[in-house]
Amino acid sequence: MNWWILFQMSQWLASVPGPPQDYMLSADAFFADARSQQLLILEKPDTLLLDVALFQATNEARRLAGLPSLRYDPALSQAAQRHAESMIQYNYTSHEDLYDLSEMTLLKRIQKQTNRFGRLAENVGQYQTIDTPEWFGVRFNAKTQRFEFLDIYNNQLYRPHTYASYARYAVGQLLNSARHRANLLNPLFTHVGCAVRLSSRPFRERRAPFGRLAQNFGAPSVANQASR
C-alpha cells in the first residue's frame, strides 16, 4: 500500500475521538478520584461526570456480582442521553417517549444511532438527588424563595448527594427491582450507555429535587459477531 495512503489513514485514526477518559478508568479508580466526591450542584450539574458515575456504579455492581464489566458505547450513550433529557423536559418516567414518535421505543432510539446490537434492554428510573432518610421535613424560606428539606427533629438541612453517592444510590434502587436487576446483571450484555438528567427547578417546588436516568444495555447481533 502507498505510504502516503498509510500516513493519511494514521492521521484520520488519530483524529477519531475515543471515549471520554473517565470511562476508561476502573470503578475503584473513578470513585477514588476527588471529583466523584463533589456535592452535586443541582442547578448546574456536570452532566458528563454524572453519566460516568452511573456507568461506573453499574460496573461496580456487576463486579460485586461476579460478572464482567460492560463497555462504554457512544451510540447507546447518546440514545440514553436523549431519552433522559426528554423525560426531564416533558416530565415523565417511562420507556415510551410519546412526545417524539421517531424515538417512541427503545428500539427506535437505538436504531437512530446504530444497528450493531441484536439484544437490547433499558432501565429507566427517577431518584431523589438530596440525601435524606425516608421521612423528612419541608419548609419554604421566604427570604431565598426556595424550599428546604430538613431533619424534623433538629432542623438540620439535608445536602445533595455527591456524584458518587447518587450514582451508587440509584443503582442500589435499581437492584431492588427484579426487572431492573435482571437487566443490570444480565451476563449476556457487553455494552452500556448511561445518562442522568436532573429536575429543572430544584428547590423551587415542594417535592424534593430528583434525577431521571436511562441505562441502555446491548449485546452485538450474531451477524456483527460473525463479521469480526
UniProtKB/TrEMBL annotation:
Domain of life: Bacteria
Alphabetical list of InterPro entries matching this protein: CAP_dom (IPR014044), CAP_sf (IPR035940)
Every SCP domain range: 56-197
UniProt-listed Pfam families: CAP
Protein name (database record): CAP domain-containing protein
Organism: Spirosoma pollinicola
